[in-house]
């Protein structure tokens, strides 16, 4: 992973003015615009440390905050991609933030969208369709094993790299196992109409793994046929076709492929083919298929074992309890975490000095924890200090009661500035 970088946020100037206005945080040299939308722009960039190409996605915080649903999607995408490391999934290198923008530094996939390849060349050969589908299933199976369900698989979210390999991207609509309701199902209506599974249309709940398999079936059909299996200018007519499973395979498809697609596009989720069955199917394994194993990431109890070789801003954001990413979107008033290069001993000494100066009652908690109260009960705060690695310490402040204005005055204007160092003196240091 790249070295740790906490973004400087002086006036939200995220470029290095000393040398090149196109250098982002002194690390990424921005190139041409690759694409843009209502909330984000994506640029090609060069990592000056490695000379490798990366894609920089720049999001506008103000616009995100005006759209809570989209903001939640971004938070979810960050927390999910934190878990994933697979050769057929676009890698997120790090996340950086200033007062007004969020920056994703991602793997640059040179070949563009699979959708464009189909649009330009029409249907693909059965062998090439199989290759891409094998790589798609490898990535999707990996996600499912880690409790991640994509829920928006389509050619526009599948990229092709310079070596002709498929990469899954865009996890903004993904779900995690902790979103499953007591009935064992997901209930959020999402996805792209032509790729949505019939059980989603029924609005009775669905299994994330099974709707992903359905979408994979649509993708395979499009690859081999060059068009969608369920399509109609009238949306309701299209949904009726999906719900009934009404589609026709073109005459050039092999019988084995037709049979295989019928198992993927089974309208009954209970009998639809599973990932484990897919990787054993005769059409799927033709020409060879080797499932990618990641034994080093799974411990004997089935949990994930994370080996951190270096920490970047993205890792530090994810370090927050419960993967709370609110620091990316707004300042924290009730609680805050930030990083410090000071030692835990030095920080503890500064907390005690502050308590003495302000005549606060102090209760020590564990090793470097303090709970303080004063100002006639108007100010109540907890300060918890813990070492993150050999170089960095995490400081967490939590309002524990009292008057909000008093807390703001005492914490924001006094104690915070006593503890914080020059290195992390801007809001962008908040994790």
Automatic annotation (TrEMBL):
- Transmembrane regions listed in the UniProt entry: none
Keyword set includes Ion transport: no
Annotated NAF domain residues? 306-330
Q: Where does the Protein kinase domain lie?
A: 28-284
Cite the GO molecular-function annotations of the record.
ATP binding; protein serine/threonine kinase activity
Catalyzed reaction equations: L-threonyl-[protein] + ATP = O-phospho-L-threonyl-[protein] + ADP + H(+); L-seryl-[protein] + ATP = O-phospho-L-seryl-[protein] + ADP + H(+)
Q: Which SMART domains match?
A: S_TKc
Q: The organism sits in which domain of life?
A: Eukaryota
User: What InterPro entries does the annotation carry?
Assistant: Kinase-like_dom_sf, NAF/FISL_domain, NAF_dom, Prot_kinase_dom, Protein_kinase_ATP_BS, Ser/Thr_kinase_AS
**Top class in the EC scheme:** transferase
Q: Which PROSITE patterns match?
A: NAF (PS50816), PROTEIN_KINASE_ATP (PS00107), PROTEIN_KINASE_DOM (PS50011), PROTEIN_KINASE_ST (PS00108)
Enumerate the UniProt keywords alphabetically. ATP-binding, Kinase, Manganese, Nucleotide-binding, Serine/threonine-protein kinase, Transferase
- Record-stated family: Belongs to the protein kinase superfamily. CAMK Ser/Thr protein kinase family. SNF1 subfamily.
Name assigned to this protein: non-specific serine/threonine protein kinase
- Species of origin reads Eruca vesicaria subsp. sativa
């Amino acid at each position: 992973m790249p070295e740790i970088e906490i973004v400087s946020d002086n006036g939200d100037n995220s470029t290095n003015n000393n040398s090149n206005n196109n250098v982002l945080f002194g690390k990424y040299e921005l190139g041409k615009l690759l694409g843009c939308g209502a909330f984000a722009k994506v640029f090609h960039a060069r990592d000056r440390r490695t000379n490798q190409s990366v894609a920089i996605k720049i999001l506008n915080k103000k616009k995100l905050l005006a759209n809570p649903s989209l903001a939640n999607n971004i938070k979810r995408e960050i927390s999910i991609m934190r878990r994933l490391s697979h050769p057929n999934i676009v890698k997120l290198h790090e996340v950086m933030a200033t007062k007004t923008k969020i920056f994703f530094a991602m793997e640059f996939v040179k070949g563009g969208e699979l959708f464009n390849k189909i649009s330009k060349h029409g249907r693909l050969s059965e062998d090439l369709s199989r290759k891409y589908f094998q790589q798609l299933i490898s990535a999707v199976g990996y996600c499912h094993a880690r409790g991640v369900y994509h829920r928006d698989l389509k050619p526009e979210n599948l990229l092709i790299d310079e070596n002709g390999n498929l990469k899954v991207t865009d996890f903004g609509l993904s779900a995690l196992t902790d979103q499953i309701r007591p009935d064992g199902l997901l209930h959020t209506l999402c996805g792209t109409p032509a790729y949505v599974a019939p059980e989603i249309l029924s609005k009775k709940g669905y299994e994330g793994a099974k709707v992903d398999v359905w979408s994979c079936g649509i993708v395979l059909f499009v690859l081999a046929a060059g068009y969608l299996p369920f399509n109609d200018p009238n949306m309701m007519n299209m949904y009726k076709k999906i719900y009934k499973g009404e589609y026709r395979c073109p005459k050039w498809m092999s019988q084995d492929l037709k049979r295989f697609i019928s198992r993927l596009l089974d309208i009954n989720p209970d009998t639809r083919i599973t990932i484990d069955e897919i990787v054993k199917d005769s059409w799927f394994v033709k020409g060879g298929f080797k499932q990618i194993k990641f034994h080093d990431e799974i411990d004997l109890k089935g949990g994930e074992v994370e080996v951190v070789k270096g920490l970047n801003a993205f890792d530090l954001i994810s370090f927050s309890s419960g993967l709370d990413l609110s620091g990316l979107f707004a300042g924290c008033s009730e609680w805050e975490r930030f990083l410090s290069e000071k030692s835990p001993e030095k920080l503890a000494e500064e907390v005690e000095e502050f308590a003495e100066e302000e005549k606060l009652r102090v209760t020590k908690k564990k090793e470097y924890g303090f709970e303080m109260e004063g100002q006639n009960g108007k100010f109540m705060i907890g300060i918890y200090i813990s070492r993150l690695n050999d170089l960095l310490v995490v400081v967490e402040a939590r309002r524990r009661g009292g008057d909000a204005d008093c807390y703001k005055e005492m914490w924001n204007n006094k104690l915070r500035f006593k503890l914080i160092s020059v290195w992390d003196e801007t809001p962008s240091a908040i994790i």
